[in-house]
């Protein structure tokens, strides 16, 4: 059950904020190693913080019973923490907070006590550059202080899938028999294997290489969701340089993003470095594009392998998600291209869409708050999620909006009519129709297979102001038509 890094240009981060986003992170008072215990057998895929191989400063754990007004060291208390530093499948520090004796994974009802929260300090090993935080709990804040990740977090319930072996998984989840060990996270799992009452499972990403400009910008980004597994992807393809000019930073090949490094090479999602010539060869076989000219800036959280029901098979499994976007990322990726946007304006322009294979695309209830403490940025909250595998995408009307006063102009698969814009993005057997509206309006998406063919209705959308997305199937030759609620043709995309 891990957070998976999908692209080198993405910030993959921790947590979920359970308060208003104004909690102060005071200087850490716990001594290094306080509240530390070794991980349960098989849990640590790397160096355990309690071992001799952990040759740098030990992590520490503190707890509060009054919502963070005061903290006490966890040493000698009922609470403890296991910490590991892993290098694969992605470089990250992993920690779990739980009981100081017995199994550490579930705090039980004691973990739901009013006012209970934890402050974790994880010093980075020399040479590690901390980049993001991500996890399964309700996070209050995350900052980097003195080369250490300082995380304040509250326990949360979690409906969990136990993957001990492929055979055991299939025995418990026959609905996933058509999937493989590499694709099982995409299965619509019926019910959980067990429901944890209260837990804290977190990850902090790091890099041992020189950070790209994108990774530098994304330091401090965090995401938290009490789900079984999720992937995080960050696209900021339209970048603003110091001259205010959009420049291509990344290259996407076969759905994978390769991040440009200062020396002109690219780091792939596998952690390897590629030359421009090597990427050109990949593009020739897989298809690819420079991120700077094709994709809209977005932050995407893809839920994976999360069950629809709790272990009883009856109770609907629900979760929540919070994402914190630091000010630098918000202004560069989600503001106007000239860098003039203030956080409050960006907050009002953010959109959140939910897409799921069986249920299509919709707009969930969400809120966005511009905060200044402990870190300046935007806090995005989706208070309730249902599953199996929805994808939540955060975009901005400021960065995606195409202003035009011309009647109708068309370039390839993009069309601008008045102040509304329409775009078709194709990826294999899937197509995404993006419609950006100056004002809310209902529109309909049709599809036909030939120029003279009959158009069939794909979906009727109650469009909101800003970006609206429709996901559908795609085959070569498909033509998509967007019409108003009254039947007026607004755009043709192919």
Question: How would you summarize what this structure contains?
Answer:
Helix content is 10%, strand content 43%. It is mainly β. It has three domains: 6-236 and 300-397, no CATH class; 239-296, no CATH class; 401-493, Immunoglobulin-like, CATH 2.60.40.
What does this structure look like?
- The protein has 494 residues and is mainly beta.
- It folds into three domains: 6-236 and 300-397, no CATH class; 239-296, no CATH class; 401-493, Immunoglobulins (Immunoglobulin-like, Sandwich).
- The chain is 10% helix and 43% strand.
- It has seven helices and 37 strands.
- The strands form seven sheets. Strands 2, 5, 6, 8, 11, 12, 13, 23, 26 and 27 form a ten-stranded mixed β-sheet that branches. The chain has a six-stranded mixed β-sheet with strand order 1-14-22-28-24-25.
- The two termini are 40 Å apart.
Which labels suit this protein?
ten-stranded mixed β-sheet; Immunoglobulin-like; 494 residues; 37 strands; mainly beta
User: Assembly type of the shown chains?
Assistant: single chain
Give the terminus-to-terminus CA distance: 40 Å
Counted beta strands: 37
Name the structural class.
Answer: mainly beta
Strand content: 35-45%
- The global form is globular
Q: Could you name the ranges where pLDDT drops below 50 across 5 or more consecutive residues?
A: 1-28, 238-249, 283-294, 400-412
Number of helices: 7
User: Cα-atom Rg, whole angstroms?
Assistant: 23 Å
Mean pLDDT: 80
Helix content: under 10%
How many domains make up the 3D coordinates?
Answer: 3
Main pleated sheet: 10 strands, mixed
């Amino acid at each position: 059950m891990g957070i998976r890094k999908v692209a080198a240009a993405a910030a993959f981060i921790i947590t979920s904020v359970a308060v208003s986003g104004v909690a102060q992170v005071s200087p850490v008072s716990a001594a290094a190693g306080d509240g530390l215990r070794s991980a349960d057998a098989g849990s640590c895929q790397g160096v355990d913080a309690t071992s001799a191989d952990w040759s740098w400063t030990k992590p520490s754990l503190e707890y509060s019973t009054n919502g963070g007004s005061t903290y006490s060291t966890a040493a000698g208390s009922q609470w403890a923490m296991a910490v590991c530093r892993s290098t694969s499948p992605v470089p990250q520090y992993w920690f779990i907070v739980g009981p100081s004796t017995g199994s550490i994974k579930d705090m039980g009802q004691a973990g739901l006590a009013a006012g209970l929260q934890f402050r974790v300090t994880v010093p980075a090993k020399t040479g590690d550059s901390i980049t993001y935080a991500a996890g399964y709990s309700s996070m209050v804040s995350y900052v980097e202080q003195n080369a250490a990740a300082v995380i304040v977090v509250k326990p949360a319930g979690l409906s969990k899938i136990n993957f001990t072996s492929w055979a055991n998984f299939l025995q418990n989840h026959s609905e996933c028999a058509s999937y493989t060990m590499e694709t099982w996270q995409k299965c619509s799992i019926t019910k959980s294997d067990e429901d944890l009452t209260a837990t804290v499972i977190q990850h902090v990403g790091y890099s041992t290489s020189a950070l790209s400009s994108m990774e530098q910008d994304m330091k401090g980004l965090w995401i938290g969701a009490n789900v079984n597994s999720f992937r995080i992807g960050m696209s900021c393809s339209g970048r603003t340089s110091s001259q205010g000019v959009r420049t291509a930073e990344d290259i996407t090949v076969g759905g994978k993003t390769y991040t440009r490094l200062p020396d002109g090479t690219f780091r792939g999602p596998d952690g390897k470095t590629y030359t421009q010539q090597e990427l050109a060869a990949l593009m020739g076989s897989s298809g690819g594009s420079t991120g700077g000219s094709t994709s809209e800036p977005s932050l995407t959280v893809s839920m994976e392998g999360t069950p629809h029901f709790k272990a009883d098979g009856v109770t609907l499994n629900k979760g929540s998600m919070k994402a914190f976007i630091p000010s630098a990322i918000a202004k560069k990726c989600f503001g106007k291209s000239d860098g003039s946007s203030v956080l409050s304006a960006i907050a009002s322009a953010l959109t959140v869409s939910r897409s799921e294979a069986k249920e299509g695309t919709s707009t969930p209830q969400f809120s966005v708050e511009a905060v200044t403490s402990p870190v300046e940025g935007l806090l995005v909250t989706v208070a309730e999620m249902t599953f199996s595998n929805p994808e939540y995408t955060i975009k901005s009307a400021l960065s995606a909006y195409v202003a035009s006063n011309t009647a109708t102009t068309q370039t390839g698969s993009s069309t601008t009519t008045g102040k509304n814009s329409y775009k078709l993005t194709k990826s294999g057997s899937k197509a995404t129709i993006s419609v950006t509206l100056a004002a809310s309006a209902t529109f309909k998406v049709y599809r036909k297979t030939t120029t003279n063919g009959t158009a069939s209705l794909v979906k009727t959308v109650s469009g909101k102001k800003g970006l609206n997305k429709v996901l559908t199937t795609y085959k070569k030759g498909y033509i998509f038509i967007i019409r108003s609620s009254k039947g007026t043709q607004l755009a043709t995309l192919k």
